[in-house]
Every structure is written in structure tokens, then in C-alpha cells.
């Protein structure tokens, strides 16, 4: 308004606001390859399951491997606090809605047992599956070596916001560059949501970043502390950092969009925004095989004084196989996700995920209009 | 934000977001001419009915002709799978909601009978009507000559996204330029939604393009694979390709907006966005004479692994004559569409569709506001 | 997107999307003067009542005059079709909802009686009130002289879209410049919504323009033919035309925003957008003294083939005096409108309407957010 | 649109439309300091309670002090009209909804008793608390000296819109520069919402500005007179004025965002927008200790002819201690506000409020989309 500005504000985009623009070439879906590479590992499909107790236990991790994806097991949840995690999960599932919160608060107050780390890793490895585990930055130096020694193939270092520069007086912060020198397996770090934060993490030598901080307007992080970036913009910015880093160093760091996706359309949009893979929580919590059996609850490592332990009912939508590969009878895009991805790639003439990242996006918000609905696009 | 960008995102517009700006000249509606030319054919009104089994059969095609428009018959639906398509349609209409999906899946699994192509075309031609038929790219080389031989006047080659360059290993893609050399009747191809795709198709010698890929936020294509362009922007972009091609070559290729329109207002906006004609599905499915009799269902040629066969209730709003020419007692713009178009043209001082395309558009979103409604503009 | 554009699309604004920005000076409301000048006439308050049968009859026109505003009487409605219009109004008010539409259609089919024009004008003049009458362009040359002869002070020429250049073969269009030469009283013409249309009308010598074509998303004009401009942008554009014309010619043509306003806030915004006065329909239809007594219905002169005659219940909110001057117990801004205007002017440091037009506007849409409401700004 | 513009319109932002962008550094929340300085006073937490009778009485002011914040007492409300304000508050709380409005109108019509000013101030000071009182501009010259004499530490001069230049014929306007010369305690003035108005006020020598005029779309000011600026933009603009003034003069004037905040997220956003502190009304009205006990009502000093005296039910959410410091079991961000602020500061690597003001904001509107909700960001 002709006066000095305190700061500039740019537009950020979420999945519901953008759309993929079809191009001038198409490819038959049976010719596309949606595989995802991380270090020397290759996943047939670029799908990761979130490190949540209601989503990934040893058995689900094995199943994800068999389906071509990757389940990440939380090393600071129930699996490493209780010898018999299965019984504990059963108690949570059986609790009434009123009992659930105090029960969760009590169960997650139990101490971590370091000896269980190796046992859980081996339960996955013994089934011939790739094993990925998640640790918070505070515990990484202590737990990561134990997991790797037991055979873990991938270490995920994860908290709400993880930066290459953390200031703390209560513990000596994790120095990623030092940590990376010691690690012999691929390391994924997150979450981050911006160009600068992603690039600083990449400089430390890590192999992948998880993208996603308060992606949705209803996210707890966004409500409680006002912090968050819609996922399309977060992914675009971290992908821009990857490109810059790749062109400068020749090293390709994977960008994995984590959270906010519900449909095949959202997953396609994440990849066109620059992601190499996606991490899904609720979607996998809704499979019949998920440990939550229709329930989900937040990560154990929430902020000290802010609420935790809310159990939500997510319901069960089908087997993991159906969710990923169909067949499906629903038309809202929440099932048959791998085929949706392949059809989307075909529509854009993309043979690979890297090709698909080159597609164009348009800003086309799904604004609710006054008493009027779009005709279905038969 | 001062950092490199992975890609740029531009705004795309849908019907509910824009409005036609009145100009400094007006014309009496009785002096406007909304006719539409395609090759040597002229339609009195620029209205096409979608190639869906619930919308266009031979009888409805004849009726559309009598009303001045054009019904496009699907050559890969029930009409060419069953000798007595009328009986089959009756079974679908009589099925309960639970029976409908398995019934549709079964009925559309029946093989196409090439001998029925000629018969259906003749049923239309014998009534003196213009005959337009729709074929998927895969079957075009085989079916189009049969249809033309039987008398078809217009060939429509249609799939969700059709490009001049399709890569396939399972069949040799249709080469439009080769195909056009052999064809003696006008060919319309679609759907497309962008400048580049439309221009490449125009270069092959086709006579019209159908515009519309995932136009609405609730479209299956948009939900399942994230691909789509709101119709105003898609039409504007394809119209820009037409203008560029026309100025360069002197050949005028028709732009036909397909899908997403519900009211006379939407139709007027499509034309001001650059369309020469519009193709409507649900609107015509809602006429008393439509084969669906108040039901509608998706095209038979859906993606292999994604759901198909959902029957939706669209209801019946009146006769085709009433929908097109009134009289009407509803004020929401869904009836009396031809007069609405003529009144709109008059308000903008447009004698022809080509004049109407020159009107100005404004971005005026119908955002739902907090507990407040606009006063009616009496 | 790097390709040629078919046309540019600019943003247009409605009342709910903008807000008036307070400035660095304030004035006590008791020092502001909201009067409105039109030719040699001065209204104490810049409020006009719409030329609708449910709003303005001779008695209401007199009452509006006594309150400091102006009621415009429709010369082509019931008042000039029936000797005893009061009885006819009573029949409409007493009709059941089902009877209303056919009754309205029948009543408005009665012929206009030219002899009633003078009688209605005199009914207003005999009470010492300023008399303004509304005529459609088709009938202006015939009716305007009759009205003026009987004493009418202001002629309003009004249709949905009125331009200085209208093409018709059924009647010789009204040539405003010729008409203006013959007229000795101020003439207001509308409706228009753009810079060019307003300027062309001003060039013909008229004294005021009515601004408003399909202002709201739910307007019939917008739904049925897709034509419309949100009122803030329409007013800004017509005000820009007035300024250009005023600076060039020294003649000041009034800009009157017509339609779409419900609250004092909307009225203030219309004036800050450049209006000199506002015309309200529903607001006055809701007064106890309005002929509609809680009902309202559209203008008799609707489009030939499009629906007309819908009666809507608007309810009664209070006396005209209460609506304009309070006191009020409602806090939603729909009552005590004159005081709201004066308080708004004071907050902006504006002594006159012309001062108030200089205030700044900001785009601050009232988007409905997810399950969250703003705290009241006590 | 290629034609002259009457005025430019810029985008303004509210809390629901923006989000804080995480940066490349994080800090442990136990290391951040959210204190707020005003003159020689330091508040442990940057929270002020609004000068409303339902929020701050002498007892609540003392409690706010004990909690580290500041309650501002209205010197023109019930506390200075009635010897026994407690009884009067009890009558308001016990009134039925129908009785409430006339009761409030009657109670606030009682005359102000100057002798009560000193008594109320002393009630606060005797408990060892910092005492801040609010006065309207009209009464400031008369009441402020009385309050200061009795020991008041901070004077707040407040009306809906307060400018350095007010024109009035009914009383000689307050000249802030003269007033400031006489005052020996810090003075906060408001409300304002723009760069120019804030800078002019700062030039007069005041110590803080309250920011907020019609911040929300549902605000009475916005509805009734159309005036208002969304809080993020208002805060950004006033903060820009503070920076300009600070760089030019070396004197730092506090910017206090007043109104429109409900959650910890909103409070964090206000500070990142440039605020040094926040003033909350409804939030504190909802504490068990608030004089309104679950009710709230508008300021006594409303506009003469516009409605006042509406009592609204806000409910009780917990003790002041719980609202500020937790623990909480709700996850919507409305409780545990101080910890939310500290966690937010930590996530952005901010040691102080001044650091936190440097964070980046993004425009990420929480648009309600069609039948689709974001997955929770676990």
C-alpha cells in the first residue's frame, strides 16, 4: 500500500488446491515403472508406511516388504517398551473411548528397553524383509548402532521439526555430519518443509528427507503453534533443494512426502511436486492387517506439556493388497493406489517417477460454491 | 521466497469462479444466430449430447437432430454389444441399487459385435438425421471405416486423455495424421485440456477437439489420479491453440467444451472462453427421452483396474424440448438453455458464437461466506 | 504458461470480500453530511428505493421523501396496469405460495394504461414529495413525456443491461443523446457495470447511472446467462468513468450502486467504491410500510422466455424510520443504516460522501474456515 | 482491464489464512524467553487481558499479575459506576437471556463516579500487582491523572478507532503529544490498524499501540460500518511503522495485537506478524475466575445510536492457570497457551519474542473443500 512492509507473504499450496495438467504425450500404464531407489535398495513401489504403533509392527513391516513397499517401525513406541507388544495393542483396541486416553498416557510412560530394539529388528529381518526403523534425534546416537548391529537396513531420524542445527542445553544435539560418517546404512531425516532446512540436512550426507510440517489446516502443529507448510509447497521447495544439491554435488537425495495424502490423486500430486516416494499413515492404519485394527493414535514422542494420547477411529477399508493393488469398488481414489499412480504416470507420458516429476501443475482450488455441485466428469 | 523454484504454478479457472462482463453494446435476442459449423455441416444450436449409453441411443440421436443439435452415439457401449439394447437398458433401469454395479460390470463384459455398428448407424440415418459416433483410439482404425460405410457423418475419437503421441507396446497407436488422410468425414478428437496437446492434434488434420479432462474437483479423474484442468482454463487454452493454428493455416478447428456445465450460465461462459459448441452429459440424461430414464452411468471404456459401473440417479427434469427451448418455471438456469444462450449473446451485443467469444471474462468466485447470502438481483 | 492466451482474466470483488481501511484522521459522526445531489435536487440521505411493485407505490414514495431519501416508482408495473392497484397488491399478498406464480403471471399480463401514469405521478406530487419514475428503454420515448408533464422530477430508464448502443429490429432503439436534449428533468440510466458502458452513457448527457448487473453469485442473471460483475468492482469501474468524464468535461454524473447490499457495512463499502448513492430493494421491501408487506417479487419487465413471477418471503423488520434511523436492537448491521453510514464516515474522517469515496479498501475475504469462527471484536 | 482504476485494492490476511514457516534452526523450548517489556516494566509473558467488565476486575487484574501477564481494567465500566460492582455483576450473570439486554442498558446508563477510580486502582496496587487502566479519549484528560495519582502503572487510551488527529465540535479532542508530556507512566493507545495511523500515534510519544479494528468478518464494526483490517495485515503494517520509527528515533514502541486470536497458533502468528504482546478477551472471559463467569458483553462505550448491551455465553474452559500453563487435554490449541508459545518459538529457533518476529509467514488458507478433510498430521 505504498508503505514499508514488515515481511513478504507468498502463497503456499495444498493437495486440494492443485491439479496435474495433462501433456501432449501419453503412455500405456503397463509400460510405466514406479520404483523408488534409496542408496543400494530399490522398492518396487514408492510407498512407505509411517512409524506409528497403530500402523507398523514387525509383521506389518514384513507385509509391506512383500507388497513392494517399506514399513518404518518406531523404535520408541510400544514395540520397544513391552516384551509382549501384541497384548498391549490389544488392550488399547479394547479400551472404551473414555479409557483410551489415560490408558495410552500410562502405557507410553513405561521405559524403553534397549534389549527389545535388536529383537524387533530381527523379527523383521528373519522374514527376509528390508528393515527400516525410526528414532528421535535425542536417542539416535544411542539406538541407531543397536538397530544396525541387529540388521536394520535403513535408519529414519524423525521429529516434528528436525534441523541440521538444533540448540539445546539439556542434551548435546545430534550432529548429523558426524553421525553420517559413522553410519553404514542409508539414513532418512525429517521432518522438514523448506528449501533451506532441506539443503542443510542434505549437506550433512543423509540419503533422504521426510517432508511435512503441519501440512493441513486441521493439523495439531498448525492449530497449537501456528507452524506449518501445505504439502505441495513443502515438497516443491525440498525438491528444489534436492535439484540444486544434485546439480552441484552429483549426489541424489530422496525426497519423501510424509502426511496429508488420502487419495491416489494426492499421491500423484506429491510426486509431480517433486517427491520420489510418499509416506502414508492413516491409509495404512485403515488396512485390515494394521496393528491398530481401525484405530490410530499419535506418536509417542509428543511435546512434553501438550496433549498426547488421543485415539481416533479410522475404520478398516480392506486388505493392504486391496488398498495398494485393488480391485476396488470405491471411486473416491482411496484404494488401488499403485494402479492409480501408474494410470496417472501413463496419462502424463511418464515412464519413471523422475519423468512424472516433470509434469506441470495448475492451481485449481476445490472451493465449495453456493448450493451448486460439479457434474461428474463421466 | 528468494530460493530456486522446482516449478511454477498458474491459476486455473472453473465456471463457478468466472463471470461474463457486459459490454457497451446490446442486441435484441431475436437477432442472434447461435449456429455451429463443423466441416460442411451446420447445427442450428451448438449443443452436443455425450456419447454415453444413458444419454444417446439411435432414437435420442434422431431427436437431438430434430431439435437442431447433435447426439453422439457410443460405438463401444450396449448398442453394439447387444442386438436388443433396449431390453438391456430396461434391465439396468429396473435393477436395485445393490444389483446395479455387478449387473453393469457383467453387461459391459459382453463382446462388441462389429455387425451392429452398421445397423445402429443406419437406424439414425434412416430417420434423416445427422449421425455422429464415438470410438476409442484403440478401435478407431477398425470401427471408423465400418461406421462411415454405413453412413456416419461424423467420427468422434474419444478417451479420457487423447494425444497425438501415444506410446504403447500392446497395440500400435493410432496415427491421427495417417487416419485423417483416409477419412472423408469430419473427425472430432478428445479429450484434451491444454494448448500444446490441442495444437498437436490440430496439426494432424482433425476437425474438432473435445475439451475437458477432470474439469471439476469431484471428477473421478481428479480424485483418482490427480489429473485435471478446470474447464474455463482448458477451453481458453485450447481456443488459443485454435486461433494460433487458424491464423497460421487458415483452417478453423472447432473447440467443443465437454463436461462440467449445468446451467445456461455455464454454457455461455464456455463459449466466451472460446468454445464453438458444448457437449453435455447429465443435462441430457435428465430429459424424459434419454435412454437412462433418470439414471446415468460412466462410459464403458474405463481404465482396466479402476472401478466402473457406478449407476447414479440424476432424475428427470422435463422433455428435451423443454430443457432446450422452455418454457420453464425454474430460475436456476438449468432449463430453457437455447434461449438463455440467445439472451446472453444479446446482452453482450453478439450476433454469432464467434462474436460471443470476444466478450470479456472476470474472476468472480462464488465463495461461500459466513452466514450471509446475497440479495437476489431483481 | 508460456503459451499464447485467448484472453486475460482480472479479479472482481464483491462486498463480502473487501473492507474499508481506517485512516489517520477521525471525525465525530455528528459533523458529517451524507447528502446526495442530483441536478438541482438534494437528498438528505443517499438512499433510493428500487422501482419494484413490492417496494415503491405512491404512498411509499412520499414516505421515502419525508425520510430524506427517494423512492422510484415503476411505471410499467401494477400501478399503471390497474386503477385500483391496492386491491391487486392485496390479492398477491393473500395468495398461497402455489397460487402466487400463476397469479403474478396473469396480473402482469394486463395492458399498461397510459392514463394511469399521470395519476400516479400526481398522487406523489400532491403530497409535496419529489417524484422519480422508472421506465424501460422500449417505452421511454412514449412514457417519459407523460410523466414529466404530470410533474415527475426524475426519470429512471432501466433494464437489466442498458447501453448507449442497442441494436434491435423490432423497435427503433432509444437514442439517449436525442432523448436527453428533449428532457428537462434529471435522467438516471441503468443498469451498467463497466467503465466503457458507463462512459458511453455519460457522454449522452444523462445525470446518473445505476450500477449493478448480476452482482451476486446467486443472481438470476448470473445463473441463467452467466453475465455479472460483483458490485465493488462494478462500482469502482463506473466511478473511474465518472472521474475521467468529470475531469474532461466538468460535468459530474452520479453513480448509484443498485443491488447486493444488505448491511450498513455494504452501503459504506459501496460509497468507498465510488458510489454517490445506493439503491436498495430487499431492505425496503422489509419495512412495515412497503406495498409487499413482507413479500417481494421480480420486476414485471423480465426476459420474454425466461421465468418470472416468483414471489419470495422477505419478512418485515421494522418501520422505514427504524431501518433508516434506528433505534435498533440487532447487531448484524441491517438496521439504523443512516447512522451506520455517519459512524463509518466519521471513522474515516470524511465530512462528505465525496470525502468518504477517498478511503482505502482492502481485499479481506470472509472465507468460511474449517470449524473455526472468529471471536467477536468487542 | 486497460481502463483507469478508481483505486487499488491489496490483499489483507487473517490468522486462518497464514502459517508460520519452520526455519533451519531449532531451540529447545526450555531455553526460550517470551517476556515483554513496556517502559521500565517487564511482563514474564506477553499476555494482556482486555479492558472488559466481564474479563478484568480488580481481583482478576491481581491474578493476571501473579501469572506473569497484565489485566487492563476499564475505568468507564461497572467498576467505576457502582460502589459494589460485585453485586451488579452478579445481577447480570443471573439475568435471563431476555432480561440481559435491557438490564445492561440500564446498568451502563448510571453515571461514572470519579471517586471510584482511585479506589479500584488501590484495590489492585494493595495486592502488589501492576495496575493498568483503560480510558476513552474523551475522558482521558480528566481520569488519567486521578488513576496515576492513585498508583496506576500504565494508562491505556482506547476506542474503536483512535487517531492522533480527531476532529470534534462537541469536545476539544485529546492532543496526545500534550498529554504525553504530562504523563509519567507508560501510555498505550488504540485501536489502530494501519502504518500511517500507527506512525502518527508513535510520533506523539506513546509507549505502545493496540492493533485491531474489525479484525474478523463477523466483527460488529465490519458488519455495521464495513470498516476493518484482518489482524495479520494490521499487525504487519503497525510493526512496519514501529521498525521505521525505531530505526529513525531509537525509541521502541510496543505493538500489541488486540482481538481475533483463539489458539496458541493464532498467538504465535500475531507475534511472527510483528506483535510484542497480545491482548485477549474471550479467552480470559472463559476462565473460571473471570468476572463474567462464562458470559461476556461489549464495552460500555459503544456508539451512541448503535446497539450495545448484548450478553453472549462464552462458557468456562478452566482456571486461568490451566489456560495459560496447562495441563490440558484438548488438542485444538485453546489451552496451555504459554507453553504453545514457547514450543512455537523453539521450533523457529527463537530465543526471544524479538527473534520470533523474524520468522517467515506463508499464505496457506484453510479453505473448506468439498467433502474432503485433511488427514491429521500425526
Report what the structure shows:
Four copies of one chain form a homotetramer. The first copy, chain A, has one domain (43-317): Aldolase class I (TIM Barrel, Alpha-Beta Barrel). Chain A has 378 residues and is of the alpha/beta class. Chain A has helices at residues 58-66, 85-94, 97-107, 114-125, 137-149, 176-182, 195-203, 220-225, 231-249, 264-272, 282-285, 320-325, 337-347, 353-356, and strands spanning 9-11, 18-21, 25-27, 36-38, 41-43, 47-49, 70-74, 132-135, 154-158, 165-167, 187-192, 208-211, 254-258, 277-280, 295-297, 311-313, 360-363. Chain A has an eight-stranded parallel barrel with strand order 6-7-8-9-11-12-13-14, surrounded by five helices. In chain A, strands 2-17 form a two-stranded antiparallel sheet. Chain A has a two-stranded antiparallel sheet with strand order 4-5. The first copy, chain A, contains 14 helices and 17 strands. Chain A starts with 8 loop residues before the first strand and ends in a 15-residue tail after the last strand. Chain A is 34% helix and 17% strand. In chain A, helix 7 runs parallel beside helix 9. Mean pLDDT of chain A is 91; it is low at 300-304 and 368-378. Chains in contact: A-B, A-C, A-D, B-C, B-D, C-D. The interface between C and D is large, with 74 and 75 residues. Strand 17 of chain A pairs parallel with strand 1 of chain B, so a sheet runs across the interface.
Amino acid at each position: 500500500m505504498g508503505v514499508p512492509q514488515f515481511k513478504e507473504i507468498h502463497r503456499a499450496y495444498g493437495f486440494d488446491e492443485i491439479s496435474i495438467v495433462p501433456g501432449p504425450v501419453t503412455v500405456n500404464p503397463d509400460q510405466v515403472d514406479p520404483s523408488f531407489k534409496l542408496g543400494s535398495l530399490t522398492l518396487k513401489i514408492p510407498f512407505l508406511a509411517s512409524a506409528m504403533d497403530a500402523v507398523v509392527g514387525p509383521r506389518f513391516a514384513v507385509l509391506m516388504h512383500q507388497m513392494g513397499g517399506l514399513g518404518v517401525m518406531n523404535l520408541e513406541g510400544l514395540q520397544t517398551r513391552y516384551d509382549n507388544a501384541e497384548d498391549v495393542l490389544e488392550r488399547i483396541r479394547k479400551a472404551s473411548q473414555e479409557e483410551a486416553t489415560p490408558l495410552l498416557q500410562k502405557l507410553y510412560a513405561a521405559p524403553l528397553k534397549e534389549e527389545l530394539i535388536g529383537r524387533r529388528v530381527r523379527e523383521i529381518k528373519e522374514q527376509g524383509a528390508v528393515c527400516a526403523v525410526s528414532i528421535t534425534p535425542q536417542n539416535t546416537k544411542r539406538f541407531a548402532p543397536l538397530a544396525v548391529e541387529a540388521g536394520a537396513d535403513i535408519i529414519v531420524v524423525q521429529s516434528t521439526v528436525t534441523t541440521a542445527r538444533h540448540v539445546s542445553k539439556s542434551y548435546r544435539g545430534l550432529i548429523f555430519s558426524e553421525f553420517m560418517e559413522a553410519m553404514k546404512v542409508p539414513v532418512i531425516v525429517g521432518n522438514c518443509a523448506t528449501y533451506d532446512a532441506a539443503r542443510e540436512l542434505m549437506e550433512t550426507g543423509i540419503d533422504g528427507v521426510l517432508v511435512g510440517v503441519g501440512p493441513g489446516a486441521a493439523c495439531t502443529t498448525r492449530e497449537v503453534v501456528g507452524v506449518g507448510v501445505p504439502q505441495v509447497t513443502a515438497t516443491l521447495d525440498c525438491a528444489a533443494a534436492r535439484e540444486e544439491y544434485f546439480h552441484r554435488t552429483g549426489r541424489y537425495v530422496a525426497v519423501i512426502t510424509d502426511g496429508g495424502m488420502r487419495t491416489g490423486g494426492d499421491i500423484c500430486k506429491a510426486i509431480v511436486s517433486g517427491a520420489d516416494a510418499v509416506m502414508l499413515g492413516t491409509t495404512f492404519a485403515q488396512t485390515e492387517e494394521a496393528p491398530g485394527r481401525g484405530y490410530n493414535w499419535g506418536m509417542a514422542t509428543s511435546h512434553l506439556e501438550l496433549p498426547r494420547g488421543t485415539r481416533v477411529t479410522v475404520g478398516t477399508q480392506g486388505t493392504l493388497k486391496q488398498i495398494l493393488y485393488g480391485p476396488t469398488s470405491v471411486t473416491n481414489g482411496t484404494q488401488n493406489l499403485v494402479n492409480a499412480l501408474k494410470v496417472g504416470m501413463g496419462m502424463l507420458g511418464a515412464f519413471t517417477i523422475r519423468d512424472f516429476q516433470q509434469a506441470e501443475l495448475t492451481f485449481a482450488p476445490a472451493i465449495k460454491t453456493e448450493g451448486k455441485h460439479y457434474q461428474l466428469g463421466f
